[in-house]
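FORM 7B: Structural annotation worksheet

SECTION A. Query
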Amino acid sequence: MYRVFVASLSALLLTLQLVHSPVSAQSSETAEAGEFFGAIQTTHPDWFKESFLEFEEDIDEAAEQGKRLVLYFHQDGCPYCNLLVEHNFKNPDILDTMQANFDLVAINMWGDREVVQVGGRPFTEKTLASALNVDFTPTLLFFSENRKVVFRLDGYRPPEEFTHILDYVSGRLENEFTYSEYLASTGRTDTSSPLGEAGWPMAGLTDLSRAGTRPLAVLFEEPDCEPCNLLHHKTFKDESAAPILEQFNIVRYNRWSDDRVVRPDGTPSTVRQWALDLGLGFTPAIVLYDTRGNKVIALDAMFKTFHVLGAFEYVASGAHEHEPSFQRYLSERAEHIRATGQDVDIWRY
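SECTION B. Predicted structure
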């Protein structure tokens, strides 16, 4: 997913010492570089819109056909992008909905093509991605007819979840509900069944404004959630996980629960309202806070082990304070691990 970008990193980045990095102490001067696995190239389908990359014109052209514009940020080798294209967009129902209701324009987050953003401001693809804080690929921005972003999807969602998003945006429901409220209206509000077994000790905290000197990880889950089970019994059981996870206070909640909590900023709330205010749409959603109670990053989509543990380490190491781009951090992390002779596989649980 990062082969092109990783290859361009300077020698300085190869010697970057990530705090608590789960790599061996073998010197990078003597180790043969590890392999990089998991990148998957993707051919975009011919129904994607061929655009002059002037987005106000694209929005107006879509509106004339009763459609809405979608900007799709991708990068070379991105396996999550491949899953979106090969799994979601080849689903007949999703394909019909996309073609009937949306014009989709593909943007390479590291690309150099010139684009004209809404408002007339010029960018390149990569400077636009940076200005919009695109940390994950795929990232999809759905625009309304009045040139506003009405939904933003950061990361990959499986077909059932993706269909909910398409129904919400194509139905023009943003003036009636937030997306989280829309999900609640579909009946996905099980608060009586227990969550699955945790794969790491959970802190028994309800006042998260007093989480202590450690950063905080908040897991929003649901009963009978297979991705939640994979998080706990694959990612959290990975041999590299323990040195990273032990730096955090980790709590988990049923996202639909009316249990009372105090948020990291001191706001009294229910879990359900907190999840709604965060705009979460996927379970498990992982929201990471620094030791001052500031939200650093949210994983609200499907992510495998390299990306999940990378996000935890991004916060624990303090790297987020000097490297605002999570993608760049992941590339640095991959090269640092490979420089010690270990392989990196971004596509395994």
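SECTION C. Observations
Residues 184 and 256 are 8 Å apart (CA to CA). The first helix runs from residue 3 to 7.

SECTION D. Sign-off
Analyst initials: ____
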